[in-house]
Amino acid sequence: MAEAKELLQVRGLKKHFGGLKAVDGVDLAVRRGETLGLIGPNGAGKTTFFNMVCGYYTPTEGLILLDGQEIQGLPAHAVARKGIARTFQITKVFKDMTVEDNLLAALALKKAPSLFSSLGRSHTRRNREQVREYLEQVDIVAFAKVKAGDLSLGYMRRLEIARALALQPILLMLDEPCAGLSKDATRDFIELTQKLQAAGTTIMLVEHNMAVATELCHRMTVLAHGIKIAEGTPQEVQNNRAVIDAYLGEAEEAD
Amino acid sequence: MYEQVIAINVGLAMLLAMSLNIITGFAGQPTLGHAAFYGIGAYTSALLTAKAGWPFLLALPASGAMAALVGVLLGLFSVRVREDFLAVTTIGINFVIVAIFQYVQLFGASLGLAVPKPVVFGIRFGNTEILILLIVLNLLVYLFMRHLPNSWLGLALGGVRNDEEAAASLGFNPDHYKVFAFGIGTFIAGMTGSVYAHFMGFISSTDFSFPVSVGVLSMAVLGGLGTVSGPLLGAIILTLAPEVFRFVSDYRMLVYGGLLVLMMRFQPQGMVGDDSWLRQRWDAVRTRGKGGARRG
């Protein structure tokens, strides 16, 4: 039997906080090898949706299937073990640890999966070499011995991506990876993502910046007020009346 | 012999400071009630040897296990509360445990308990034997502490200490690691309590009161929480200080409290932590010796 085309399928996902319907019945699919953009104006429910898939929120209702297996409601660490790696909008590197140790910690998922195997030695030459490869991918090898908390925001984001890659995930989820980045750093991020795409990585990208999303995504799903208002190729989405209204409405509110 | 007694007190303090360092330094869980586990170990060992007739060599690990049992329960509770609440809760646990020792007949109540001197393979344990045992225990725990930063466990605890959500995103269950740290740390504290009981020959509830917990925390903070050798240095300094300076022993709580505030304000990484004043001087001296430039 051929593998299903969809790696991640989400059906009728809802999250209600009291009376607030942050996400209200969203369907979505991520196909193998593609980059799916999840976009929408502020408060659309993107981050809530993202956090449900990653196990940080329990859905009020709905199904999340990874490779055909239900994962909704699993805690975050269990979701990570199923093969979903994520980054954080507000970076969460391990600040008082070195860049190298941040990466080594990620290798534990494959190399020391149980509490008792965790007593083994982590800082072996082989593991360090492996870490080096991931650091090379995001071009921060020179900072291996630096405390992660001393890095600039752009480098912290690279470290988070390297850390996520070190988990060897089947799905990489990026939460607004360009928020707060300079033009150059954003450019670097786009190039890095394109390299990952060429290597066949399946990515879900939450992005507020339409230009970045358009450049990177094969398909997009647009949320507004917790509901899916459009999906399709970047071109289709950009010409969609509902999407234009949602973004214009936001621009007017912001004025 | 006076020197021997001091050496034993240093040995006990080093074990306590290292065990607290696993919980507070590595796993990042504040504990202000460590003496409770020290006491649980001491009372367990006293009762097992004096009332149940257990040999000391069995009572020693059993005391650790009993302390760890309570420690794991506290760890399970710590999973539910934020750091500041945990700190307050551990203070409460210290007072509750001391009150139980003080008012329950089984524990000798306010009269305390007499503890027999251990006899192991026909050797009666005097101060020399206790000291040798402490050296062995310190060596074992120190080797574990030295291994910790280079182990998966150390990395996992570091992740949990820095950011639980990020640690979970790497597949670590933060709850498991916190409880595990509490288990190991309180196990060591319990064993230390057992050695203390048999060294003293008599224990009472005040030996394990809140000021003892503050003292142990001060040692770890002074030397450097989360460092391997810092708590040892802190334990040595704060155990010897009252012997050398009269005022330290008269105003013990004032010194501990002042020290905690000053360290947190000026050297939160402790004496031997990264970029500490002492470490910087040491690096400067070393690189000058080698004639090399100091690295950035």
Structure description:
Chain A is of the alpha/beta class and 255 residues long. Chain A has a single domain, classed as Rossmann fold (3-Layer(aba) Sandwich), CATH 3.40.50. Chain A has helices spanning 46-53, 76-82, 99-111, 125-137, 153-165, 183-198, 210-216, 234-238, 241-254; strands spanning 6-17, 20-31, 35-39, 61-66, 69-70, 84-86, 171-175, 203-206, 219-224, 227-232. Chain A has a 6-stranded mixed β-sheet, sandwiched between helices. The radius of gyration of chain A is 19 Å and the shape is globular. The N and C termini of chain A lie far apart (54 Å). Chain B has one domain: Orthogonal Bundle (ABC transporter involved in vitamin B12 uptake, BtuC). Chain B is 72% helix and 3% strand. In chain B, strands 1-4 form a two-stranded antiparallel sheet. In chain B, strands 2-3 form a two-stranded antiparallel sheet. The longest helix of chain B is centred in the middle third of the chain and has 27 residues, at 174-200. Chain B is globular and about 55 Å long. At the A-B interface, helix 2 and helix 3 of A face helix 6, helix 7 and helix 8 of B.
* Mean pLDDT rating of chain A: 91
Distance between the termini of chain A: 54 Å
- Strand residues, percent of chain A: 15-25%
Fraction of residues in β-strands of chain B: under 5%
The rounded Rg of chain A comes to 19 Å
Under CATH, the topology of chain A can be stated as Rossmann fold
- As laid out across the biggest beta sheet of chain B, the strand order is 1-4
Overall outline of chain A: globular
Query: Which CATH first-tier class of chain B would you pick?
Result: Mainly Alpha
Total count of strands of chain A: 10
Specify Rg of chain B, calculated over alpha carbons: 19 Å
How far apart the termini of chain B lie comes to 49 Å
What would CATH call the homologous superfamily of chain A? Answer: P-loop containing nucleotide triphosphate hydrolases
